[in-house]
Amino acid sequence: MIKAVMVINGLGKPRLSKFYEFQPAEKQQELIRHVYAVLSGRPDNVSNFIRSLGTVFGPDTRLVYKHYATLYFVFLFDNSENELAMLDLIQVFVETLDKCFKSVCELDVVFNYSKMHTILDEIILGGQVLETDSVEVMRAVEEISKLESTTSAGTMINKSIPSWWAR
Amino acid sequence: MGSQGGFGQSKEFLDLIKSIGEARSKAEEDRIVINEIEILKKRIIEPDIPKRKMKEYIMRLVYVEMLGHDASFGYIHAVKMTHDDNLHSKRTGYLAVTLFLNEDHDLIILIVNTIQKDLKSDNYLVVCAALNAVCKLINEETIPAVLPQVVDLLGHSKEAVRKKAVMALHRFHQKSPSSVNHLVSNFRKRLCDNDPGVMGSTLCPLYDLISEDVNSYKDLVVSFVSILKQVAERRLPKSYDYHQMPAPFIQIKLLKILALLGSGDKKASEQMYTIVGDIMRKSDSSSNIGNAILYECICCVSSIHPNPKLLESAAEAVAKFLKNDSHNLKYLGIDALGRLIKISAEIAEQHQLAVIDCLEDPDDTLKRKTFELLYKMTKPSNVEVIVDRMIDYMMSINDNHYKTEIASRCVELAEQFAPSNQWFIQTMNKVFEHAGDLVNLKVAHNLMRLIAEGFGEEDETADSQLRSSAVESYLRIMGEPKLPSAFLQVICWVLGEYGTADGKYSASYITGKISDIAEAHSTDDMVKGYAVSALMKVYSFEIAAGRKVDMLPECQSFIEELLASNSTDLQQRAYELQSVVGLDARAVESIIPMDASCEDIEVDRELSFLNGYVQESLNKGAQPYIPENERSGASSISNFRIEHHGPSGHSLRFEAYELPKPSVPSRPPVPPVSAAELVPVPEPTYHTQFHEAVAPKLSVSGTGSSEIKLRLDGVQKKWGKQTYSSSSPSTSDSDIHKTQNGATKRDVPSSLSSKARDVSYDSRKQQEDVDPEKQKLAASLFGGASKPEKRPPASHKASRPNSHAADKSNAEKSGPSDGGAVKASPQPPPDLLDLGEPTSISNATSVDPFKQLEGLLDSNEGTIAPGSSSSTKAPDLMSLYGDTSLSGQNIGTANLLSTGSSDANLISDVSHAPDRNGHGTGSAVTLSTPLSKGPNTKDALEKDALVRQMGVNPTSQNPNLFKDLLG
């Protein structure tokens, strides 16, 4: 299964991170930093796969990344997935983003944080590949945003949260 | 950037992101984020926030948390948002909680109800959002709450919902298999779903289920094959095509499943051959995804029952991968090659140059993968090159995790295939020098044992040469700063045992060096322990040789320091040394005989030699021995306290008869001074003590038996080098694999190098500019490979009867000792001559002896191990403390002594000598060393080794091949 998806920019700032196995926030940061450290040390024109990630991840965790302009797209997964297929899944993800934002750039990723998650949720569900066709993903995403825009009236949120919860 | 307003972020949010983006340092970023958190904390509790604004706040929280800051104050608001009826709010809420919360978080309980409701919603998008959340948030306890709804959704009219429901069920299965076991059949049902997408999604859970239990899914082979066929024949709607490939992800999953189902199952595999062959033939290697499928086919082919035709096309595909410029494909090619050589080892030969290219590639991933491949194909003929390369690489990296791995692989390979002991020691030195702290301590023990036992044959000069060279190399190396502790221990031990053996170095020189080590590593008690034991040995050898011992001032001060050490172990050793130095030559010689570290010891477990003494004591009115189970523990301790003032029957009772399990004689590790130590006088004379000391000693030697269990780790085994492979920590899996490899490839006829050349020439035709260096490397790496069909199969049969009898008992001698055996006896006995020709051993038969070997090892390990002695490991020492502190401290200290490997020598003599003395024979004759290995078995052993040598491995080392690389 896929363990995590990360989008990190060339300076090591996370732009999107999603972990399909729960990791505490500090651990997430550590993982992102570790991945960035590994990636930034790699020259161009080498393979997109990394096997020995050290002890930070579980044994047999593989990493596939792709470097687009200023962004690293990183998928972490175990041995039940095929490396090249994961590389293409990154391609699917990016293609979808591209369709969605009309030639995607880092700023789109930054400013459309929730849409990124929506797209990713249509591609990967609970660590398994759900859909690999970017047209299909786009259709689902558009349907969601259409529905959302029609229902998003300016109604007020009911403030009934118990005060002891709202710290 | 027209899209940035699409989800209606406010200027505030945009400013935040922008300022974070422009932050020049982590500290600045943190400041901005902390400021943002403060703002959000205030804002989020304001009354009557518009929904839109609230959504934005939540997204800002998510963003803040992604940057590594705590946003837990807002979790409840995200939870609240999931309750909203508005789809957008609800989705935002679900997204936020799936990112914020783990399945055991307290707030989950507030969401479960909402999820239940949403799963029943008419709006399928709401259902999808809820299913998304289910995958992440539901834990084992809450599964029952949503399970019925999720199962209902498996029949939902929308395929997107069905698909997600399958995934959710799969997730439940991952989290808690027991709670959904009864629903597993649903996956099979959904496999026949009308929608290919849903069918595809069931493959994920089925893959998991099948990898857990292959046999209950064999019936599905037909279905999977027919699905794969339909997919490959483009029967699916065009929308499932990806880069002109029909549903590649489904194909990949199916191939993975087939690989599982066909593994080791000929019948199932036969059903797959056609379709897998078709896919490979049709595959499009120009696109990434086409190659992904091709690679998956190779994996499948190498996993299912072998089919020559498929293997051939798999080999072709590997060739294509390796020739490709893309590193990704090269990587996959190397990986696939590693899978294929398990089935037929010759495939690697065709790709030798490509493999070497990968080895020299700047890409670390590729390099490591290639090392993995080389590791798999190591055999006696190429071990030197491969291990050399590995060590070079090991020295060049800083990644401790990988360093450990590669170091242990070096050790494993060296132990298994070492062509000569000399090489083995050099290799180990290198590994220790550069990664000594990362390797297992056992490796150090193995190294000491190897130096002690030498070639395991009668050639004494070779042995002493080996030792001298070891001493030389250690004297050279020990000046280096920062040597790891384990290596220093080896150095101390070797210097102590053999430093003065060849007369080249004087005792004062060696002792000076040893005390230098101890001084330089004054914080390491283990090293100091080894050092003081080494000093003791050097001095005793001197005394025994009749020379006068002048202790160097630095040694003197070192020992004085240890006499007052906090560590009882070190103190004990220092006292030991002091008293041994004070003894006369004859006594010393029997305590620490020269070069006796490998002598076997026989222990009279019944302690029958004491019968006379016991009888005498009984006659004098002593109390008879009461077995431990017949008396209470409390009194035994108090009795023990009295015991060392005079012999009494009680002293026997402690551990004397405990743990009688090991059946092979063992040596109770008691040094002579223990007697002195039990009596609280520091320097009693040894001889006069005997009568009095017999009883305590008896109890002490009894403790030896309790220790047998403890000493299994570092002990030497009867037949020298064999033990390396048995004790190496390799997994049985890789072992088997390797032996198979070795078996097919072991036969390296002298024509080999030329054969390898031929291959190189072949590839040269295509690639004119190949570096001759590389070719040489290729020859040495792959040169050992040979074509089995060239050799007459008869000779093996000839060798079988010859060696069969010996085979079983001596199979252990095989692998690693081959090289050594050749060196030691280059001329084969006449009856073996006919085997000297290049012979062949068919794969299947030659595996046999190795299997036997394995079985043998298992059964032998238990019995051989305790038969000899070496040092116990530190952890054992601790357990020893634990054991003995219960029964009495005196015994505890006595046991401590046994930690020094050399002490074993003392022990054998001591445990017997006193009894002789006690019985008035008057001479301190050493009783030890009636060896258990009779001359006959030994001869047979050697013969067998030779047979193997001749039959299996006529020229295991081809010096020419390695000259360039090693020189």
Structural commentary:
The complex is a heterodimer of chains A (about 170) and B (about 950). By secondary structure, chain A is α+β, with helices and mostly antiparallel strands. Chain A has one domain (about 1-150): Beta-Lactamase, CATH 3.30.450.60. In chain A, about 40% of the residues lie in helices and about 20% in strands. Chain A has a 5-stranded antiparallel beta sheet with strand order 2-1-5-4-3, with helices on both faces. Chain A has a two-stranded antiparallel sheet with strand order 6-7. In chain A, a hairpin with a 4-residue loop joins strand 1 and strand 2. Chain A is globular. Mean pLDDT of chain A is about 80; it is low at about 150-165. By secondary structure, chain B is mainly alpha-helical. Among the domains of chain B are: about 365-590, Leucine-rich Repeat Variant; about 610-720 and about 875-935, no CATH class; about 745-865 and about 945-965, no CATH class. Chain B has a two-stranded antiparallel ribbon with strand order 1-2. In chain B, a hairpin with a 2-residue loop joins strand 1 and strand 2. The chains are: A alpha+beta (about 170), B mainly alpha (about 950). Chains A and B meet through strand 2, helix 1, strand 3, helix 2 and helix 3 of A and helix 1, helix 3, helix 4, helix 5 and helix 7 of B.
Helix- and strand-based class of chain B?
A: mainly alpha
How many DSSP-defined strands of chain B? 2
Strands of the largest sheet of chain A, in order across it?
A: 2-1-5-4-3
For the sheet with most strands of chain B, the description reads: 2 strands, antiparallel
User: What share of the residues of chain A lie within helices?
Assistant: 40-55%
In order across it, which strands form the biggest sheet of chain B? 1-2
Total domain count of chain A = 1
Broad shape of chain A: globular
The secondary-structure element order of chain A is: EEHEEEHHHEEH
Give the proportion of residues in helices of chain B.
Answer: 55-70%
**Residue windows where pLDDT falls under 50 for at least 5 positions of chain A:** 152-167
CATH class bucket of the domain at 364-591 in chain B: Mainly Alpha
Number of helices of chain B: 48
Largest interface: A-B, 79 and 96 residues
CATH topology of the domain at 364-591 in chain B: Leucine-rich Repeat Variant
GO biological process, one term (chain B): intracellular protein transport
Domain Clathrin/coatomer adaptor adaptin-like N-terminal (chain B): 49-581
Subunit structure (chain B): Adaptor protein complex 4 (AP-4) is a heterotetramer composed of two large adaptins, a medium adaptin and a small adaptin.
Region (Disordered) (chain B): 717-876, 913-938
